[in-house]
């Protein structure tokens, strides 16, 4: 595996193996003996705001003995002069040994990986996926709740524009968890995600509108904020925010052993008095991000290896067809040198290789 772009780049067995490496990384953090990636450079290219992802990757690389460079504001780079993602990828491959990219266009990390000669890690692309977040979401669940296949997991909040829940729901489905989605009507799991869950993973998700109805059954409650910056004009933020707030009284209905996760930042969906409850795991979860990102970085840099006996995922089968990706936020509709290409998800579904959306006929879009 050269890059880490979507959660399906890793098999269940590989994910489990990474968790063991992450446990070892906790020992490296403790002892402060950073040798694994000495002399290597990580570029963090952040075209969107970030606190956790950028700093935890930088911290991870420094704790591995490497160094970091990068930007957190593309306005200070040649992007403003019109440099393409493909050219940025070629240039950065001479300056760094590994790239972490966060980008407002879905599929930009895949595009960068296609042109970079060094590994690329997706640090979040539009509403598409956030696979390293998913890795440490799963790590937290596995560490504190045991095998994921037995668990009831509730995903709550903005399930449409949030990217963390998209990579997470695929992984949970693959690992066999029972999934219930709780969201405002306008922010439900997108159809293409539900269809992929059904056709590729043979899984249906339950939906609920009231958190109080489902919370007594949950082992894990994964809260998310409304992605205000990505809401289209026809959805008013005030009409969808503040609907799902976990507070002490709601927690009284939950199991004693349930854990609450959140990719953070939180806005108002978790009351502050919940922070002191034993079930509040979100800060611990964000701390685990460093050891998990150390593990994936060391693997992609070749400083560690997953044994060949650990089963990997077969690469997706793709086809070129004369169709268009309907997602206006897909990189395919912005970088003009790209050709449409689709993954064969099943006999009944093609998905854009960049953003996962189902294609539409060219003439359908020109009307
Ligand atoms: C998330 C993201 O950027 O998608 N943040 C993060 O990386 N932990 C979640 C969010 O912004 O709501």
- Discrete helix count: 12
Q: Which residues sit in consecutive blocks of at least 5 with pLDDT less than 50?
A: none
Q: Helix proportion of residues, in percent?
A: 25-40%
Give the integer mean of the pLDDT values: 96
Count of folded domains: 3
User: What order do the helices and strands follow?
Assistant: HEHEHEHEHEHEHEHEHHEHEEEEEH
Tell me the Rg in angstroms.
20 Å
Q: CATH architecture of the largest domain, please?
A: 3-Layer(aba) Sandwich
Describe how the helices and strands are arranged.
Elements: H1 12-31, E1 41-46, H2 52-63, E2 67-71, H3 85-95, E3 98-103, H4 108-115, E4 120-125, H5 131-145, E5 152-156, H6 164-175, E6 178-182, H7 191-200, E7 206-208, H8 211-214, E8 220-223, H9 237-240, H10 248-251, E9 259-261, H11 282-300, E10 318-319, E11 323-324, E12 342-346, E13 349-352, E14 360-361, H12 362-366
Parallel strand pairs: 1-2, 1-3, 3-4, 5-6, 5-8, 6-7, 8-9
Antiparallel strand pairs: 10-12, 11-14, 12-13
The structure holds N-carbamoyl-L-aspartate (NCD).
Provide the descriptors you would attach to this structure in a database record:
367 residues; alpha/beta; Rossmann fold; SH3 type barrels; 3 domains; 12 helices; binds N-carbamoyl-L-aspartate
Mind explaining what this structure looks like?
The protein is α/β, with parallel strands linked by helices. The protein folds into 3 domains: 7-126 and 290-300, Rossmann fold (3-Layer(aba) Sandwich); 131-286, Rossmann fold (3-Layer(aba) Sandwich), CATH 3.40.50.1370; 318-366, Roll (SH3 type barrels). The protein is 34% helix and 16% strand. The strands form 4 sheets. Strands 7-6-5-8-9 form a 5-stranded parallel beta sheet. Strands 2-1-3-4 form a 4-stranded parallel beta sheet, sandwiched between helices. Strand 3, helix 4 and strand 4 form a beta-alpha-beta unit. Helix 1 (12-31) packs across helix 11 and helix 5 crosses helix 11. It is globular. The model has no long low-confidence stretch (mean pLDDT 96). The site of N-carbamoyl-L-aspartate (NCD) has 11 residues, from helix 2.
